[in-house]
Design goal:
Residues 1-22 form the signal peptide. This protein is mostly beta strands and 142 residues long. The protein has a domain at 46-142: Lipocalin (Beta Barrel). It has 1 helix and 8 strands, in the order αββββββββ. It has an 8-stranded antiparallel beta sheet, with no helix packed on it. It is globular, with a radius of gyration of 23 Å.
């Protein structure tokens, strides 16, 4: 008899535990992982707009942190703009990679299997207090 009562009780405990561990599918957890050695460097050898096919990269990209990156050009200059912020001039640094001249952004692209562009964006966050180190945020381009 004790075994018969124990089985339903154990079943109810398991169901309650599963309910506590189930997460809301719209809730997104984030984990801050310190990354040492990240930096943004503008190389001496830069590629201008005509050295790279910038037309393949121009457009808007959704970011994994909910932001928006827009790449545009004006004349021979290439620009990046995050959300509604200031646009910053960028230069090519190699195959499918760009860096902002003010060292605020660094991006690398890759063509996804569906033909769209994706990649990574490294964002330098200026410290609010002088003397504190620059913090970097690495996000995915979608």
């Amino acid at each position: 008899m004790k075994k018969l009562l124990l089985a339903p009780l154990l079943f109810m405990v398991c169901i309650a535990a599963m309910g506590q561990t189930a997460q809301d599918p719209q809730m997104v957890d984030s984990v801050r992982v310190p990354a040492t050695g990240l930096s943004i460097v503008v190389p001496e050898h830069r590629l201008g707009m005509y050295a790279v096919d910038f037309g393949a990269y121009k457009g808007a990209y959704d970011l994994s942190n909910g932001g928006l990156l827009q790449l545009t050009s004006q004349g021979r200059r290439m620009y990046a703009q995050l959300d509604n912020g200031e646009r910053t001039e960028i230069v090519g640094t190699g195959m499918q990679s760009f860096v902002a001249l003010d060292r605020s952004l660094q991006m690398s692209f890759e063509r996804k299997p569906d033909g769209d562009m994706g990649g990574e964006l490294l964002i330098a966050r200026t410290p609010r207090v002088a003397g504190e180190p620059v913090q970097y945020l690495l996000v995915s381009l979608r």
